[in-house]
């Protein structure tokens, strides 16, 4: 039967091309997602500023959470990446230099240093960190012009910053450094010969020591070995020397972790995203391939009936259909590997461009992604062919001949079982979303639920299409005259082939409406929760990287100011008592000023006092305190973002919030344990009777004679908080957009194939007196009916989870987001359907009617 399968493909070019396109595009998308997953698993971060050091010593950024189910055979623990930079004691340099084979140890120290913009505008991009000139050899940087900084007040710019600021050696440049904005003499321009992800400014050693936010500590050490030293052996000796000092030695691409410690967590996020959207891509591909191949087999009913009548066994017929699908599958999946490699790299570049991941990650895609995509593509082709052949193969010859008039049986036991199971599982997840899940957790059930509902609707699509055609035929006739009459007659006779066109439209509209409103609803819910928790009317930010207690007091005394509070954010982990429900995300920590917090957040206090937030103290949310079994007056141990283990006395218990739960600490206690090392923001509330505009004007006047201070409204903090949410939104928009383009192409693909197959039908209509215009108008009405049915079913699929998801994350059953999204999606679906139907119909009608009637089916 394989030879027969090859022969039939020669005369079924339309079905061949349609199935080929569906498999080709689906395999390419799946391969691209596989490349993203491989990149996340490997997490290759090539070194940049430390590339010239074969061995790098850095602080250990990993933290092993307390074990879960401790003492049992199910015991396990998770590993987290600490949120802040873990610095090392500068004295370790002497210990490393004593190791045999070490020629030189170079310390890398960084501190805030930025070029302020004009008139209080944000700092010039790329100028956030300064370094000691001695660390320039670790890149290695070389002087392109000028000389090295030798005295205080001198600076060397890298060539990117020099080009961006328009400065060359010999001029002066104002730079915001700890302590204020100062003028520095540009004495040189440095270059590595290759662009780096992060630009740098280099200062004299005296300045670097003065500006360091953590005196006596360094970010990392670059170890330069003596000539001829074995690196593997040297690394072992350095490890032994540093054992128990919280340091790790890094070689190869792992050295990049010393510069970009948080990029390691980006790899984990990339794995999750690739898995989620890869699974969605596989499901879409299976839907599309099954729909396309099923429609192709339906269009060959007469051929299948004749083969059964002349003695072809069910097994032979099934093998023929499967053989055709596998021939197309091998060709399509093999060729799809070429664009799949480029598509994965393109997707990764877009994600880094949107700020989802740091651009230091290296995209990696091996043959494993191609092999996995090919297996998925061939599996989809085989499964779709197997299902499509079941009906034709099981029919008896006489029944098969009768089926040529239009099959009436479509609901098999297998289809019924799969459809009901998918629908029940989807409804269970929807129920759990409403009753159990809160806030961000609702997303974990909403996504799988909508795909299960879409699966059920796709399986029941023939019956739903037949029922909706029956409902629509009277209204359509009433508004469209003769064209509608002919269209509804055709639709009632051809409901099964029509369902093959309805399914991809349902899938495209359902996914588009759900994913777009899912993201806008999630973003708006996060915005509302943060706004409710944020107590500030204005924000004062220092470009110099420090807001002192004296400045807090000065702002608090400004006319029109009610309260002024230092503000620091970080993350930590409950270490003792242990919280078994704690994950790698840890505890959100906010550093505040006690007096201001007591005035503005007293309503959130369940017990204790916020004005007691002084020294090593903390205010915990009630739900977390309950899990720890701790209350006011108890002492807990928390692992802060820089790895320090700090005992903290609980001085207050806060009302728990489902979606935005934070613990409060004194800003002066939390700030030294952050990467910046200092307070950089000040939250200000207006005094009673003072409007926000008046407050902003008063603060702007206060900051006018203080270089480096900028004033913004509370929306700037909200936008900063939502930056990660917006980055994730771009991920959804990009990946879903790609899948929707694939679904849209499949819609066009299916409709073109379905319309082109009706050449004989159009010829008969013209021979019986219908004009080309009448046939085209009939086809237009049919296309609108297909689009209406597909759009309606897609809307129901989207609503099945948008409603419970919205109820779970907000107080409304209706999703948040622009109203134009829904009509825009439906309008695009209608446009695609009409164009993809009319164009092939118009091309078909160009031939002579008599020739069309004699054409092969």
Automatic annotation (TrEMBL):
| Annotated Pfam families | FtsX
Annotated membrane topology is: Multi-pass membrane protein
Task: Give the keywords, sorted.
Answer: Cell membrane, Membrane, Transmembrane, Transmembrane helix
The UniProt transmembrane annotation reads 269-295, 325-348, 368-393, 414-437, 449-474, 495-518, 730-754, 775-799, 819-843
Q: Does the keyword Membrane apply?
A: yes
User: Which residues are in the ABC3 transporter permease C-terminal domain?
Assistant: 276-395, 734-847
Q: Which residues form the signal peptide?
A: none
Please state where this protein is localized: Cell membrane
Similarity remark: Belongs to the ABC-4 integral membrane protein family.
Please give the name of this protein: ABC transport system permease protein
Q: Which organism is it from?
A: Amycolatopsis magusensis
Lineage at the top is:
Bacteria, Bacillati, Actinomycetota, Actinomycetes, Pseudonocardiales
């Amino acid at each position: 039967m394989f030879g027969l399968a090859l022969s039939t493909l020669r005369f079924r070019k339309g079905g061949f091309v349609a199935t080929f396109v569906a498999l080709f595009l689906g395999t390419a998308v799946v391969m691209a997602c596989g490349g993203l997953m491989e990149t996340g698993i490997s997490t290759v971060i090539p070194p940049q500023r430390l590339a010239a050091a074969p061995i790098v010593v850095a602080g250990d950024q990993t933290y092993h959470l307390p074990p879960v189910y401790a003492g049992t055979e199910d015991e396990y623990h998770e590993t987290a990446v600490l949120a802040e930079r873990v610095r090392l004691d500068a004295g370790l340099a002497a210990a490393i230099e004593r190791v045999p084979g070490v020629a030189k140890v170079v310390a890398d120290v960084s501190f805030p240093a930025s070029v302020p913009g004009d008139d209080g505008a944000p700092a010039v991009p790329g100028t956030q960190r300064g370094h000691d000139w001695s660390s320039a050899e670790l890149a290695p940087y070389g002087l392109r012009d000028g000389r090295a900084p030798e005295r205080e007040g001198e600076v060397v710019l890298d060539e990117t910053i020099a080009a961006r600021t328009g400065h060359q050696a010999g001029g002066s440049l104002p730079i915001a450094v700890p302590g204020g904005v100062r003028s520095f003499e540009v004495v040189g321009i440095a270059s590595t010969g290759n662009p780096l992800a992060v630009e740098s400014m280099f200062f004299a050693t005296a300045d670097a020591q003065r500006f360091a936010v953590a005196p006596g500590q360094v970010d990392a050490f670059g170890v330069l070995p003596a000539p001829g030293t074995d690196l593997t052996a040297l690394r072992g000796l350095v490890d032994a020397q540093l054992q128990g000092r919280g340091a790790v030695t890094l070689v190869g691409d792992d050295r990049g972790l010393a510069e970009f410690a948080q990029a390691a967590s980006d790899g984990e996020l990339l794995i999750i995203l690739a898995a989620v959207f890869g699974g969605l891509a596989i499901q879409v591909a299976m839907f599309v391939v099954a729909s396309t191949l099923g429609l192709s087999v339906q269009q060959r009913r007469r051929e299948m009936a004749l083969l059964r009548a002349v003695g072809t066994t069910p097994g032979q017929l099934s093998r023929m259909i499967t053989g055709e699908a596998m021939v197309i599958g091998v060709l399509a999946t093999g060729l799809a590997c070429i664009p799949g490699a480029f598509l994965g790299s393109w997707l990764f570049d877009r994600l880094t461009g949107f700020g989802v991941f740091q651009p230091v990650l290296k995209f990696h895609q091996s043959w494993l992604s191609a092999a996995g995509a090919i297996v998925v593509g061939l599996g989809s082709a085989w499964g779709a062919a197997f299902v499509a052949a079941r009906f034709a193969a099981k029919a008896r010859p006489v029944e098969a001949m009768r089926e040529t008039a239009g099959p009436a049986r479509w609901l098999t036991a297998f289809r019924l079982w799969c459809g009901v199971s998918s629908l029940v599982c989807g409804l269970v997840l929807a129920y759990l979303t409403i009753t159990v899940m809160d806030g961000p957790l609702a997303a974990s059930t909403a996504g799988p639920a909508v795909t299960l509902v879409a699966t059920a609707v796709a399986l029941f699509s023939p019956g739903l299409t037949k029922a909706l055609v029956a409902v629509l035929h009277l209204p359509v006739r009433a508004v469209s005259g003769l064209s509608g009459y002919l269209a509804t007659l055709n639709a009632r006779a051809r409901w099964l082939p029509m369902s093959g066109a309805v399914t991809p439209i349902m899938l495209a509209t359902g996914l588009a409406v759900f994913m777009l409103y899912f993201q806008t609803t999630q973003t708006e819910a996060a915005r509302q929760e943060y706004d409710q928790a944020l107590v500030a009317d204005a924000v004062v930010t220092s470009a110099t990287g420090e807001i002192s207690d004296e400045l807090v007091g000065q702002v608090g005394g400004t006319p029109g100011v009610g309260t002024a509070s230092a503000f620091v954010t970080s993350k930590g982990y409950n270490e003792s008592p242990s919280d078994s429900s704690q994950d790698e995300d840890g505890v959100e920590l906010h550093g505040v000023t006690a007096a201001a917090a007591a005035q503005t957040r007293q309503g959130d206090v369940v017990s204790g006092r916020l004005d007691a937030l002084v020294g090593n103290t903390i205010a915990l949310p009630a739900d977390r305190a309950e899990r720890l079994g701790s209350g006011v007056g108890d002492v807990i141990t928390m692992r802060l973002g820089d790895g320090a283990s700090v005992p903290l006395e609980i001085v207050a218990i806060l009302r728990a919030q489902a979606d935005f739960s934070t613990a409060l600490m004194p800003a002066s206690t939390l700030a030294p344990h952050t990467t910046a090392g200092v307070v950089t923001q000040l939250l200000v509330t207006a005094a009673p009777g003072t409007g926000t505009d008046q407050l902003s004007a008063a603060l702007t006047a206060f900051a006018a004679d203080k270089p480096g201070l900028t004033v913004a409204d509370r929306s700037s903090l909200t936008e900063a908080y939502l930056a990660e949410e917006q980055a994730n939104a771009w991920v959804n928009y990009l990946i879903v957009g790609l899948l929707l383009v694939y679904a849209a192409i499949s819609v066009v693909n299916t409709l073109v194939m379905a319309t082109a197959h009706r050449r004989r039908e159009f010829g008969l209509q013209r021979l019986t007196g219908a004009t080309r215009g009448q046939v085209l108008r009939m086809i237009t009405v049919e296309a609108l009916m297909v689009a209406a049915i597909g759009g309606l079913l897609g809307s129901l699929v989207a609503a099945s989870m948008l409603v419970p998801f919205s109820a779970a994350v907000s107080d409304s059953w209706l999703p948040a987001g622009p109203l134009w999204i829904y009509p825009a999606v439906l309008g695009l679906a209608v446009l695609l359907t009409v164009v993809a139907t009319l164009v092939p119909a118009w091309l078909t009608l160009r031939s002579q009617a008599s020739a069309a009637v004699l054409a092969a089916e």
